[in-house]
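Write out the 3D structure for:
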Amino acid sequence: MVADTESELARTGIDKEIDGVPIKAFVSHVELESADFELTNVYREKLYHKPGAIDEKVPEQTVDIDGDRWTVISHRSGMILSCLTVERSVG
């Protein structure tokens, strides 16, 4: 199962660079709705990556992903995949 996941990640994963470290990741994007009075949009991404591919990140830490600054929401390590959840405001 781990080998299947790793080969699928290598085959279909998206190239990302996190704090200067190139990785392959499955990425899901979410645009969070802002209140009517706000002029910014909040974007959240979940990056599913091979465990140990990047250093452990902690909530509120700022990371550079492909040249953009993101704030870490969570970073959960799993046996098959780890999940880094980040968000940023645009607007």
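The chain has a mean pLDDT of 87.
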